[in-house]
């Protein structure tokens, strides 16, 4: 796709904001600390524009205004030693890029993810010092048909999914001329950010999520698996197919002790896990883990303040051997996932914080060291991660010219990286966006659909 970059601007908060250093919580500094991309496509009506109104002006003006309450996003990260970070709130601003494409939105077909998206999403050079990298980059691309795309990448070290969507939704509200709905709660002390370990420590839980994930049997490292070419697909499940899977999971295995049936997430993710084991041709005794991202906001005691801005999601792992996943009913896989999710209590979260505070160095827990290298966490073969966007307000982002015609997760090309999204029509369907090695994708699709078509 031919894309021409026209201009790049630094957008700073419209009004003076607090400047200083903010300690990050332990959850901010582990896992994904790179930027997470999303992309939206629009067909603005021609009569939306007036002589004094342009799409770039609207976006930049509202962005400058939303950065006042969300001023941490206008700052920069700094390494402070031992793999630890702090946030300097210095109003250096975010980057806004304007681009044009000679293609049309129709050229993108059904908007299935492809390498073309790389031209529509801002890119960053992570070999640069981290304090030189903006925390937010926005790219506006105009197509010759009059359609546009708006893509963003937001630093996961500063905002998790709910916080990033909170920022984006408030940005659209200000762009429409409406007031802020929910002020962000910026005090990370609720997670004891910047404080020393507790003495004596609280009750300790076993945190298997911090252990290196298993390797393929017979291998001493995952270097070769990291090098293999990947492909991305978005697979749709109708409401009927989702209900079929839930029925199979709940009737074919021991019902959870609390009587609450397995959820959409537990069921569909279990199905993805089993299908991946089959597609990858695992031996029966192959250990495999599934990374599950759990939002702790409502699980803390007391629950976190409304609008908590930062990372309150943490990864836990479901474990099994491939043979059990593929030979036992779907409910078994769902039960392994349920067990991992239910571990996340207030006590468990605080135990994890203390575990991380006592680590001499956090480097081995961070993905920034995994990019283009053989270091850092790798959740590819024989493992995978499935992140749920099922409850996030990802659709209906209206900057003033109407809702999007398509929303997607941008680019993701790491083996085992996958997302669950609600269908855009609100009809109960689900989308599974996943990345697998090219050699495994066709087999995955076959196993994924064979029992539910």
Rounded to an integer in angstroms, the radius of gyration calculated over CA atoms is 22 Å
Write down the oligomeric state.
single chain
Number of helices: 9
Helix % is 10-25%
Tell me about the biggest sheet?
Answer: 6 strands, mixed
What characteristic shape results from the CA principal axes? Answer: globular
Strand order of the largest sheet: 1-6-7-8-3-13
Q: How large is the share of residues in beta strands?
A: 15-25%
Unreliable parts: none
Number-wise, the strands total 15
What's the N-to-C terminus distance?
34 Å
H/E element string?
EEEHEEEEEHHEHHEEHHHEEEEH
Mean pLDDT across all amino acids: 93
Structural class: alpha+beta
What does this protein look like?
This protein is α+β, with helices and mostly antiparallel strands. The chain has nine helices and 15 strands. Strands 1-6-7-8-3-13 form a six-stranded mixed sheet. Strands 9-15-14-12-10-11 form a six-stranded mixed sheet. Helix 5 crosses helix 9 (438-449). The longest helix is centred in the middle third of the chain and has 16 residues, at 264-279.
Helices and strands, with pairings:
Elements: E1 3-11, E2 20-23, E3 35-42, H1 55-66, E4 76-81, E5 84-89, E6 94-101, E7 136-143, E8 148-155, H2 161-175, H3 223-227, E9 230-237, H4 239-251, H5 264-279, E10 287-295, E11 313-321, H6 322-327, H7 330-342, H8 346-357, E12 384-388, E13 406-408, E14 417-422, E15 430-437, H9 438-449
Parallel strand pairs: 6-7, 10-12, 12-14
Antiparallel strand pairs: 1-6, 2-5, 3-8, 3-13, 4-5, 7-8, 9-15, 10-11, 14-15
Helix pairs in contact: 1-2, 4-5, 4-7, 5-7, 5-9
Pfam families: Transferase
Keywords: Acyltransferase, Transferase
Protein name: Spermidine hydroxycinnamoyl transferase
């Amino acid at each position: 796709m031919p894309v021409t970059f026209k201009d790049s601007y630094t957008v700073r908060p419209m009004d003076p904001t607090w400047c200083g250093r903010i300690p990050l919580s332990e959850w901010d500094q582990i896992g994904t600390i790179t930027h997470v991309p999303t992309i939206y496509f629009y067909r603005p009506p021609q009569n939306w524009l007036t002589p004094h109104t342009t799409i770039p002006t609207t976006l930049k003006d509202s962005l400058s205004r939303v950065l006042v309450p969300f001023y941490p996003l206008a700052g920069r990260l700094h390494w402070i030693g031992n793999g630890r970070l702090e946030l300097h709130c210095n109003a250096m601003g975010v980057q806004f890029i304007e681009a044009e494409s000679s293609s049309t939105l129709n050229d993108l077909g059904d908007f299935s993810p492809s390498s073309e998206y790389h031209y529509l999403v801002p890119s960053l050079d992570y070999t640069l010092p981290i304090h030189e990298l903006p925390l937010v980059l926005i790219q506006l691309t105009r197509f010759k048909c009059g359609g546009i795309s708006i893509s963003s990448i937001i630093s996961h070290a500063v905002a998790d999914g709910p916080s990033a969507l909170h920022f984006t939704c408030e940005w659209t509200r200000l762009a429409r001329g409406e007031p802020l709905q929910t002020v962000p709660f910026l005090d990370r002390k609720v997670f004891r950010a910047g404080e020393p370990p507790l003495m004596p420590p609280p009750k300790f839980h076993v945190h298997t999520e911090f252990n290196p994930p298993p390797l393929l049997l017979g291998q001493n490292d995952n270097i070769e698996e990291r090098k293999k070419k990947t492909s991305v697909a978005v697979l749709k499940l109708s409401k009927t197919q989702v209900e079929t899977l839930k029925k199979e999971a709940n009737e074919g295995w021991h019902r959870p002790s609390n009587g609450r049936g397995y959820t959409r997430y537990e069921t569909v993710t279990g199905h993805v896990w089993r299908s991946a084991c089959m597609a990858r041709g695992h031996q029966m005794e192959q250990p495999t883990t599934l990374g599950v991202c759990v939002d702790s906001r409502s699980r803390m005691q007391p629950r976190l303040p409304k609008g908590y801005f930062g990372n309150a999601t943490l990864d836990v792992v479901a474990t099994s051997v491939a043979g059990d996943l593929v030979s036992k009913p779907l409910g078994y896989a769902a039960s392994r996932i349920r067990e991992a999710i239910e571990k996340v209590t207030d006590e468990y979260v605080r135990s994890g914080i203390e575990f991380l505070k006592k680590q001499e160095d956090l480097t081995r827990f961070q993905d920034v060291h995994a990019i283009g290298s053989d270091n850092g966490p790798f959740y590819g073969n024989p493992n995978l991660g499935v992140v749920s966007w099922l409850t996030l307000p990802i659709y209906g982002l209206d900057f003033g010219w109407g809702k999007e015609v398509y929303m997607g997760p941008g680019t993701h090309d790491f083996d085992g990286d996958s997302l669950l999204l609600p269908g855009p029509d609100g009809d109960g369907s689900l989308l599974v966006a996943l990345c697998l090695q090219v050699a495994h994708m066709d087999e995955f699709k076959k196993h994924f659909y064979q029992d539910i078509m």
